From TrEMBL, chains A, B:
Classification via SMART domains: HTH_ARSR
InterPro entries per record: ArsR-like_HTH, HTH_ArsR_DNA-bd_dom, WH-like_DNA-bd_sf, WH_DNA-bd_sf
Domain of life: Bacteria
PANTHER family: TRANSCRIPTIONAL REGULATORY PROTEIN
Start and end residues of each HTH arsR-type domain: 1-88
GO MF entry, a single one: DNA-binding transcription factor activity
PROSITE patterns linked: HTH_ARSR_2
Protein name, as recorded: Metalloregulator ArsR/SmtB family transcription factor
Protein species of origin: Myxacorys almedinensis A
DNA sequence: CTATTATGCAACTAAATGGTTGCATGTCAA
DNA sequence: TTGACATGCAACCATTTAGTTGCATAATAG
């Protein structure tokens, strides 16, 4: 899961995922057209995405087609993000209660 | 949003969020007890989390209480992650169709 | 007032990161 | 077969990052 978070923290890599979202199965060359860095730099980013299993490559002759795999994103949500989704966790409401001197479980002693 | 992704990519910072999830409003010193690095290192991590608005500090005398703010996580999901949640985007099924020679919209030409 | 406690600030270091350039390899087309 | 095209590999560089140590400041306790 660490590899997925690492992969997502770079904006260029998130852009690559967005590009594959709108047009799946693109080659390295095609993806390069939408970024301002060299082909090798894009290739490295794709390697990181592949290592996180977010992109699955398929060789077709001399072309390498890149396919988006959203499964790790789903896992990130299910196993980490979803537990923070409870609105009652909202810090501001808790702060308000703290400032009101209203002691409760989640407060510091 | 970039700040939030950056904040999340470090496992120590995710652990801090988890610690605040289980016990909100902890001081720097309390949080340090659960990590193996120096107080200053933890302090830096908390600064990153504050910059991303994931942690909201509240000074109480000489103690700084740290409160979890899950709102940016919700935003990450709503504005970025949620669009990848459609199962039909699954790369493997697309690859299968590609390999079956079944041309479709989402394919490369 | 003095000690101790909780935190902040600044400088430094090692390692990771994001990018480059140059060259090699394999596939397709004429 | 030859040349162009798509990609990979490796070395290198600059910046960021994650951590350290040392010292400063402010609040509480005795």
């Amino acid at each position: 899961m660490d590899a997925v978070f690492k992969a997502l923290c770079d904006p260029s890599r998130r852009k690559l995922l967005d590009l594959l979202y709108t047009h799946n199965g693109q080659t390295l060359g095609e993806l390069c057209e939408h970024l301002t860095m060299t082909r090798q730099a894009v290739s490295k980013h794709l390697a990181v995405l592949e290592a996180a299993n977010l992109v699955i490559p398929l060789w077709q002759g001399r072309e390498k087609l890149h396919y988006l795999n959203p499964a790790p994103l789903q896992e990130i949500y299910d196993r980490w993000l979803s537990k923070y989704d409870r609105p009652q966790l909202d810090a501001l409401s808790q702060l308000k209660q703290t400032l009101e001197g209203n002691p409760q479980e989640t407060n510091h002693e």
